[in-house]
Design brief:
With about 475 residues, the chain is an alpha+beta fold. It folds into four domains: about 90 residues, Uridine Diphospho-n-acetylenolpyruvylglucosamine Reductase, domain 2 (2-Layer Sandwich), CATH 3.30.43; about 120 residues, 2-Layer Sandwich (Uridine Diphospho-n-acetylenolpyruvylglucosamine Reductase, domain 3), CATH 3.30.465; about 110 residues, Alpha-Beta Plaits, CATH 3.30.70.2190; about 90 residues, Alpha-Beta Plaits (2-Layer Sandwich). It is built from 16 helices and 18 strands. The strands form four sheets. Strands 15-12-14-13-17-18-16 form a seven-stranded antiparallel sheet, with helices on both faces. A five-stranded antiparallel sheet has the order 5-6-10-8-9. It has a four-stranded mixed sheet with strand order 1-2-4-3. Helix 1 packs antiparallel against helix 3. The N and C termini lie close together (about 5 Å). Bound molecules: flavin-adenine dinucleotide. Flavin-adenine dinucleotide (FAD) binds next to strand 3, helix 5, strand 10 and helix 12. The site of flavin-adenine dinucleotide has 38 residues, from strand 3, helix 5, strand 10 and helix 12.
Length: about 475
């Protein structure tokens, strides 16, 4: 592991001079505390020595130059909604929070792009572009809290990937500050690029280990036609899974296809104060959002999908025809993680298996088997059409939170090994951070690991940028 410098009063003074007193948090324990964890949970906390909140690209450059000079580790941070511990300063040092760089710089209708600073809240961008007649198709379930920069840092997925793809598909250009403080412009407002290796694509999902993103150019889609939400209720989780592939290949325009099991729905409906249709006899729901150009197309589409669900074992299909019904259903889906946390503040939200759709039934059986072996009660939900399943294990009553921190990650390691055997991966959207790094290293060949290291060193020879995340330290 690299030897890092420590923050000294002289370095604090240098940072203050470079970016202004008001943008530096130092020796204020309560304020620093807000940057010690992400949504993986408080049990994984590490304290930063100092937090900087630059207001522009030049200030980010200045911070990186100072950090390089004294070999101080720097952890870039968005909204801290990540679930893999990727924004936690495990070596102390500087947390570089992007929260003050939060302007939508341009919505360009001719080129169908928006240019934004990285601290723009995802949902704020979504709302702003709707007003101009566009859709920003990135849609993590944390859309109301996460930042665009964090979405790029993690290559966020979410509820519309089956139709529009992950964040990677929406990013056309980036401005990035390298660990040395140098600035790189990648991509732009154009839609084709065979002009050398794509460093742009390499940056997406790099979890703050290669550079600090200071500007993002995102693709905008035309607004979808009319949409409708269907809620298909199944008597067993197993019976639900066979529907998904058929719905996806039915020719209907599917925007979302989400799985919610009984456990997660029961605790979340209590948390948000609602109930879902047929809840007392439903073991698993499929929430399907479909699109149609007009009323006729939409009606044909939902009748076709509804019939498929019933043929495959659903006992009821509820069509949410009003905005209120749709909002009520999506409110439950969007709050599943919060609902589970309200049931057990220590439940682990970091599970994020992904597998080919054809093996998802086996993956779900595997989750049940491994949970039984580890003696943990587990909720199962996720973006099922993407093959992306989130198992959420609950801390057993007789286990301390500290022990649970280790135990739950060992449980996930076991699950990930099984998912890999089935042809899957340990993360589809949450990323690796430091929590999933041991499992990642087990599944990569030495050749791939060596290339990852060489890439890291090409960007960050001093290894000061987010050390201990995504790739093994020296
Ligand atoms: C309730 C809930 C639901 C969620 N649902 C989803 C979902 O559906 N899909 C999904 O993909 N994720 C989901 N997540 C996880 C999380 O919201 C995403 O990973 C999100 O993209 C993180 O954004 P953030 O701004 O909070 O980033 P942070 O958590 O602050 O940081 C994440 C990573 O990005 C890096 N980073 C942040 N900003 C920059 C920058 N400017 N430059 C370089 N690196 C940077 C950080 O260093 C870190 O490695 C969910 C989380 C919660 C709590």
């Amino acid at each position: 592991m690299s030897e890092y410098g420590k923050i000294t009063p002289a370095i604090v003074a240098e940072l203050r001079l470079a970016i202004g007193d008001r943008n530096v948090i130092y020796e204020d324990k309560d304020a620093l505390d807000n940057y010690a964890c992400d949504m993986a949970g408080k049990i994984f906390r590490h304290d930063p020595e100092i937090v900087v909140r630059p207001e522009n690209r030049d200030q980010v450059s200045a911070v990186m130059r100072i950090a390089s000079k004294y070999k101080i580790p720097v952890t870039p941070r968005g909204a801290g909604s990540g679930l893999a511990g990727a924004a936690i300063p495990i070596h102390g040092g500087i947390v570089l929070s992007i929260e003050k760089m939060n302007k939508i710089l341009e919505i360009d209708p001719v080129n169908r792009v928006a240019v934004v600073e990285p601290g723009v809240v995802t949902n704020d961008l979504c709302k702003a572009v709707v007003e101009k007649g566009f859709l920003y198709a990135g849609y993590p379930m944390s859309t109301e809290t996460s930042y665009i920069g964090g979405n790029v840092g993690t290559n966020a997925g979410g509820g519309k990937v089956i139709r529009y793809g992950s964040t990677r598909r929406h990013v056309m250009g980036l401005e990035v500050v390298l660990p040395s403080g140098a600035v790189m412009e990648l991509g732009g407002k154009f839609r084709k690029d065979t002009w050398g290796y794509s460093i742009l694509q390499l940056m997406i999902g790099s979890e703050g280990t290669l550079g600090v993103i200071t500007k993002v150019i995102v693709n905008l889609e035309p607004l979808p036609g009319k949409t409708v939400n269907l809620l298909a209720a199944y008597p067993t989780l197993e019976s639900l899974v066979s529907t998904v592939a058929l719905v996806v290949k039915s020719g209907v325009k599917v925007i979302s296809c989400e799985l919610m099991d009984r456990f997660s729905v029961d605790v979340t409906t209590k948390y948000v104060g609602t109930t879902l249709p047929f809840q007392d006899k439903t073991e698993a729901y499929l929430l399907i959002q479909i699109e149609g150009e007009g009323d006729d197309e939409l009606e044909n589409a939902y009748e076709k999908v509804g019939a498929l669900c019933l043929e495959q074992g659903a006992f009821e299909v509820f069509v949410a025809e009003s905005r209120i019904d749709s909002a009520m259903i999506w409110n439950v889906r969007q709050n599943l993680a919060e609902g589970m946390r309200s049931f057990d503040p220590y439940c682990s939200l970091s599970g994020d298996l992904v597998a080919p759709l054809s093996v998802v039934p086996e993956l779900i059986r595997t989750i049940a088997r491994v949970s039984e072996k580890w003696n943990v009660r587990t909720a199962v939900l996720g973006h099922i059409a993407d093959g992306n399943i989130h198992p959420i294990p609950i801390k057993p009553d007789d286990m301390t939170p500290e022990r649970w921190g280790v135990y739950s990650e060992e449980y996930f390691e076991d699950l990930i090994k099984e998912a890999v055997k089935l042809g899957g991966l340990g993360s589809g959207e949450h990323g690796v951070g430091f929590l999933k790094l041991p499992a990642l290293l087990h599944t990569k060949t030495p050749e791939e690991t060596a290339i990852h290291r060489a890439i890291k060193l090409a960007f960050d020879p001093l290894e000061i940028l987010n050390p201990g995340k995504l790739i093994q330290e020296k």
